[in-house]
TrEMBL record:
Keyword Membrane (UniProt): yes
Stretch forming the signal peptide: 1-24
Source species, domain of life: Eukaryota
Region called Disordered, residue ranges: 718-758, 872-945
UniProt-listed CDD domains: CuRO_1_Fet3p, CuRO_2_Fet3p_like, CuRO_3_Fet3p, PP2Cc
Subcellular location: Cell membrane
Entry-linked PANTHER family: IRON TRANSPORT MULTICOPPER OXIDASE FET3 (PTHR11709:SF361), MULTI-COPPER OXIDASE (PTHR11709)
Main location: membrane
GO biological process, one term: reductive iron assimilation
Biased amino acid composition, Low complexity: 718-729
Source species of the chain: Hyphodiscus hymeniophilus
Protein name per the record: Cell surface ferroxidase fetC
Length: 1228
């Protein structure tokens, strides 16, 4: 018979179909579920649920299209069980899904059960128990389904499971967790993290190959950050959905999520590489000291190579799975037919135990499995009442588009999973974004091809929006996949097309056998009522809610407690008024005598301490109880940890109590012996220590250190005029008339040698106000066109150690003889050259914040440096006094000879290399380039108390997280070590600056939060915002912060610190110096290059449009708006970094400074300029510098810049006004 060629396409298609059918196989697994012993982390052996007497469990594998049969034999003996095949749709076989009391009865001990289903999907999945919180005991493992049509090429396939691990069994942990003794619902923290149910995993790889990794998080609680050092990840699948390739450095895999990625190995075998999984500790309420939240494995290229220690990370930079695009390009589903809104709530019920809720309903298992109720309730199956209130069921019509909106009213993450489907994730907010508002969202706001998966992470206090099509009739759970939250009841039930199920589904007989063996009813409604399906009497219910007020029992208990208290007071009063008997009097006398003997013995171990002036301490009536458990010396040893061991409230109380007793005691040690409580003792010592440190009394609040708006220097005693000239050198231009004698005991600021002073001149140490040194400093302030000025400044010197790079050896080895024009050494009490401090503060919303920074920021810097015990950068390796002889050394002679041999170069020789700009005939620079900010040098490590530093940094970050939240939940400030004392991260002046800025900002913001809001006129008591009666914090200088009402404005700030390696001031043309700038907002700091005359900025503007800021605040990009002038703003603010602005802290408007260290060579720069944005927003950097260059003195330059900017703003306003009038006149 002849066959027409036209039939060949049809024939080939039929042959292809039949070939695929013939390839499908039946895969059978026989699982005998038993108890075994396991110790995967090497720390504790415990009973674990195994399969066929082995653990870890087998990885299930199959191919798309296969029929899978799993024969389960429960031989646990003491527990029921089930199996759920996570992520599989179970199309047409919803009875095989596995959740206990949902799609089946639990399998009793000694019973058998068969799961039989066909695979219509491929990718990464897993199987686990879905009964009574059981799977963390070990009953979980990956399930990988191959696909002949996998879209990408690879050489080899590897499976990598990650999980947390507990040492206790779930049947022990769950009752402890859901317990009245745990009212906050703090989840148990795991003891370890595992790779493939072990630790120190090694994976052998070959060079130049592409490996497909299937990563499955089979854990109970912790999400995992995963990265491979030296290798990039190419994501190709999540939760069984193939995706377009996406490159990632790190991925985040929540509990129950899966991710497949490809890694191409390197072409050489010279090294092995670590890969790490780090548990997401933000989920943990507490972090035990013994917890190692990381687990490490290695890609082994060569077993002969050592396996390296993983590098420390500054932050987690995980890939955002919301941006993935499905490979099949499935379009956004249409507008929903049904919207289900679920609010996540964590709360307590009437029994005092913590539970989890969707819309105030906590899931309680029905008496009859929900699927069996669907099949046995006839037409009533479409009524959700049949399934009971506490199964929280929603009936879905067949083929409808369903939208689930989940609003998180909890402060933790939740990975939500839907059985029987994957869903389109069409919206996910950042943290703290609040509930979803459908009024502000349309179809066009969602991705055209949304990513799909079956488990999606919801962020704290945020929301997600999910869509799927109800095309798979069955009973499907929607729940958080943190197992503790499942146990607490964070579950809803989707009843999908119940009438369709009744037509098509038949339950296997062995499923009913499990119900019979366990005594579980399998017909009727949720209450097992088979007569009236809407009668739920006798159904399982959750505990009753907490009562709204006092119960009768509570009222009775309170009444009797009050009566008992009154009787107790009466007895105490009666006893106190009674005469003391002779025996009691004698006993008391012996006790007092023994106390005196003990005190005398302890005082013998203590150096004598001077008396305390009682007049410097306030009177009070409170006294501390007697402390006799520690000597003074022992308690002093506790100082490094004292302040940070307890809260600030206790600290303030202890200060008052100690001061009170000091007012009644003549010696300090008596006060010490009057403290008994250990926690209060440590706080009190932190307060007392400055009093006895170095044997000198401490400064009281009335004798606090005032800001040094002067500098200390040497002036010739014979100088009669500020411009006195001498034949030995140029004039010094320091104002003798403004100088005052400087005494060492009045401060630790060291003396500095004046420039150009000859060696023969007798020198006197004097103070000179910086404002008076007009040849070296100038300032000008103007309110411009505003009615008042919110900007301010500060300039002077700080009492902090030097941070300059040590002077070159050629400078330190010269003899003491000083030639004309040299400088003379005059180290002060601290032995360091003084550090100069300049700051400009630009307030907004008022001047309260900028004034606070002017008066207090320098104190935060000094206090932090002192508490860090920061050392000087100049101390190491300094020569002892007298080590060098006077006169020129050999080195000096050689240096002179070298200088004589140097061939001078003229302007033309250096013009090209110096990049000198072209100028016009008036000397103006033509087309000045817009210079980027100067590059920062690396921090220079300084000696410090690293343990103290780490504790202070951790405490500060915890305070930001707990007080403000939002952005600060993931806050990891630059230059913080945040690890133990073995860290390699340097503690430096940069660390001090970062801590000081953040601490000052926290104090200011919390102080405002404690004050009444003048804009809130509700009926609240006047002290409603007070905490312990304190409406404001105290600064390190003991000043209160701000005024009586809440200030919601803020301030930007830029400060410059200048340190020199020698006592010669930084303005001396032969002096190198180190400039460190800390900057927040859009205030500006500029340097003028001496050679080119160009402006070199050392700060950047922290605006929403800045690349640095848009990256830092990418999670809060939704708050960025563009105003009518085309400027981008964040929550109405022009700056994304600022002090104050308390209403915008949660979205990232922080005061973490941008810090730069600039090493300045002698005469490299002509001058330094600090301006507020009123100037920098009007004039360009080069215009500012050019105006200053034309002035004769810095003071004139400051006035000219401010005046020019003010005039320019006024002329612009005038131009706009005239233009507006012209437009109106011409009706254009």
């Amino acid at each position: 018979m002849a066959i027409s060629l036209s039939f060949f396409p049809i024939l080939s298609a039929l042959l292809l179909v039949f070939s695929r059918v013939s390839e499908a196989a039946t895969v059978v697994y026989d699982f005998n579920i038993t108890w075994v012993l396991a110790n995967p982390d090497g720390a504790f052996t415990r009973p674990t649920i195994g399969i066929n007497n082995a653990w870890p469990l087998p990885i299930m594998t199959a191919t798309k299209g296969d029929n899978v049969i799993v024969n389960v034999d429960n031989q646990l003996g003491n527990q029921t069980t089930t199996l759920h095949f996570h992520g599989l749709f179970m199309n047409g076989t919803t009875e095989m899904d596995g959740p206990s009391q949902v799609s089946q009865c639990p399998i009793p001990p000694g019973s058998k059960f068969t799961y039989n289903f066909t695979l219509t999907q491929s990718g990464s999945y897993w199987y686990h128990s879905h009964d009574t919180g059981q799977y963390p005991d070990g009953l979980r493992a990956p399930f990988i389904i191959s696909d002949p049509d996998f879209p990408y090429k690879f050489d080899e396939e590897l499976v990598l499971s990650v999980s947390d691990w507990y040492h206790d069994q779930m049947q022990t942990l769950i009752p402890q967790f859901i317990n009245r003794a745990n009212p906050t619902g703090a989840e148990p923290v795991p003891q370890a993290a595992l790779f493939n149910d072990t630790q120190n995993l090694t994976v052998a790889v070959e060079p130049g190959k592409t490996y497909l990794f299937h990563v499955v998080n089979i854990g109970a609680f912790a999400g995992q950050y995963i990265w491979f050092e030296g290798h990039n990840l190419t994501i190709v699948e999540v939760d069984g959905v193939f995706t377009d390739q996406a490159e990632a450095e790190m991925i985040y895999v929540g509990a129950a999520q899966r991710c497949s990625f490809m890694i191409t190995t390197k072409n050489e075998t010279t090294a092995n590489y670590a890969f790490v999984s780090s548990m997401d500790t933000s989920l943990f309420d507490t972090i035990p000291d013994t917890l190692n939240w990381n687990v490490t494995g290695w890609l082994v290229y060569d077993e002969a190579n050592a396996n390296p220690v993983p590098e420390l990370l500054d932050e987690f930079n995980d890939f955002d799975d919301f941006t993935l695009v499905p490979f099949d390009k499935m379009a956004l589903l249409p507008e929903p037919d049904q919207v289900i809104t679920l609010d996540v709530i964590m709360d307590n019920l009437g029994n005092g135990k913590p539970y989890a809720f969707f819309n105030n309903i906590t899931y309680t298992r029905p008496k009859v499995p929900t699927l069996y109720s669907v099949l046995t309730t006839g037409a009533d199956s479409v009524n959700s009442l049949v399934y009971g209130e506490f199964s929280h069921s929603f009936v879905l019509d067949h083929l409808q588009t369903i939208e689930i909106v989940v609003n998180n009213h909890d402060s933790g993450k939740h990975p939500f999973h839907l059985h029987g489907h994957n869903f389109q994730a069409i919206a996910r907010s950042e943290e703290e974004a609040g509930d979803f508002d459908a009024r502000n969202a349309t179809q066009t706001d969602y991705p055209l091809t949304p990513m799909r998966r079956d488990t999606f992470v919801l962020y704290p206090d945020g929301h997600i929006v999910l869509r799927f099509q109800a095309d798979n009739p069955g009973v499907w759970l929607f729940h958080c996949h943190i197992e503790w939250h499942v146990d607490q009841g964070l579950i809803a039930t989707m009843i999908e097309a119940p009438l369709e199920l009744q037509k098509s589904l038949t339950i296997p007989e062995d499923h009913f056998d499990a119900c019979k063996a366990g005594g579980v009813p399998f017909t009727g409604n949720a209450a097992a009522n088979t007569v009236n399906y809407l009668d739920l009497k006798g159904a399982n219910e959750s505990p009753k809610p907490l009562p709204a007020g006092f119960t009768a029992r509570g009222i009775v208990a309170l009444t009797f407690s009050c009566i008992a208290a009154l009787l107790g007071l009466a007895v105490i009063t009666w006893y106190g008024l009674a005469d003391m008997g002779a025996a009691s009097q004698e006993s008391e006398n012996r006790r007092l005598a023994q106390m005196d003997r003990d005190a005398a013995r302890d005082r013998s171990e203590i150096t004598e301490i001077p008396s305390i002036d009682r007049s410097t301490y306030p009177e009070s009536t409170k006294l501390f109880n007697t402390l006799r458990s520690h000597t003074f010396k022992q308690m002093a040893d506790l100082l490094p940890i004292s302040y940070h061991s307890i809260g600030a409230v206790t600290f303030d109380f202890a200060k008052q109590a100690v001061s009170t007793y000091l007012a009644t005691s003549s010696h300090l040690e008596h006060a010490v012996y009057q403290i008994r409580s250990a926690s209060q003792t440590m706080v009190a010592f932190r307060y007392i220590w400055p009093i006895i440190h170095d044997g000198k009394p401490a400064r009281t609040p009335n004798d606090r250190r005032h800001f040094h708006d002067y500098f200390v220097t040497n002036l010739p005693s014979s100088s009669l005029h500020p411009d006195s000239r001498s034949s030995s050198g140029p004039h010094h231009k320091l104002p003798r008339s403004a100088s005052t004698p400087h005494k060492e005991q009045s401060g630790h600021t060291p003396a500095a040698a004046p420039p150009m002073i000859g060696a023969s001149r007798e020198l006197t140490v004097v103070r000179i106000p910086l404002r008076s040194a007009k040849h070296h400093f100038g300032v000008s302030v103007s309110r411009g066109t505003r009615p008042y000025n919110e900007d301010t400044y500060q300039a002077g010197t700080l009492e902090i150690p030097a941070f300059a790079r040590r002077a070159p050896i050629s400078l330190t080895r010269a003899g003491s003889k000083v030639t004309g024009g040299g400088g003379t050494s005059a180290d002060g009490a601290s032995g360091d050259p003084q550090v100069f401090y300049f700051g400009v503060f630009d307030g907004h919303g008022g001047n309260e914040c900028s004034d606070f920074l002017r008066e207090e920021l320098h104190t935060y810097l000094e206090t932090t440096a002192e508490t860090f015990e920061l050392g000087s950068s100049l101390k190491n390796g300094r020569k002892s006094e007298g080590a060098e002889t006077s006169g020129d050394s050999d080195l000096s002679t050689k240096r002179k000879e070298s200088l004589d041999n140097i061939e001078p170069k003229d302007e033309e020789d250096v013009k090209d290399s110096a990049h000198i700009p072209e100028r016009d005939e008036n000397g103006r620079i033509l087309n000045p380039p817009e210079a980027p900010p100067l590059e920062s040098e690396k921090p220079v490590s300084a000696d410090s108390n690293k343990q103290m530093v780490a504790q202070m940094e951790q405490s500060l970050i915890a305070q930001w997280k707990d007080t403000v939240g939002g952005y600060f939940r993931r806050f990891k400030p630059e230059h913080f070590s945040l690890v133990d004392s073995s860290t390699e991260n340097p503690v430096s002046i940069e660390s001090v600056l970062m801590y000081s800025f953040l601490k000052a900002d926290l104090d200011f913001v919390t102080a405002q939060a404690r004050k009444p809001d003048p804009d809130n006129h509700s009926d609240k008591p006047l002290n409603a915002d007070d905490i312990l009666g304190e409406p404001a914090h105290l600064t390190p200088s003991s000043h209160r912060i701000g005024g009586p009402t809440r200030f919601v404005g803020g301030s930007t700030a830029s400060i410059a610190l200048i340190s020199t390696p020698t006592p010669t001031p930084f303005w001396h043309p032969a002096t190198p110096s180190t400039l460190i700038v800390a900057h927040v907002g859009d205030t500006r700091i500029l340097l003028c290059n001496t050679v080119t005359g160009l402006a070199n900025p050392v700060t950047t503007n922290h605006h929403p449009s800045s690349p640095i800021e848009s990256t830092r605040l990418r999670r809060y990009a939704a708050t960025f708006v563009t105003d009518s002038f085309g400027e981008e703003r964040m929550s109405g603010l022009a700056n994304t970094r600022a002090f104050g602005d308390m209403r915008s802290k949660r979205i990232g408007v922080s005061a973490e400074p941008e810090i730069r260290r600039i090493e300045i060579m002698p005469a490299e720069y002509s001058f330094l300029v600090l301006v507020s944005d009123g100037v920098s927003g009007t004039l360009s950097d080069q215009e500012i510098v050019d105006v200053v260059k034309e002035a004769k003195t810095p003071e004139q330059g400051a006035r000219d810049v401010v005046g020019f900017a003010t005039e320019l703003v006024a002329s612009q306003r005038h131009f706009v006004k005239i233009s507006s009038e012209w437009i109106e006149d011409h009706e254009t």
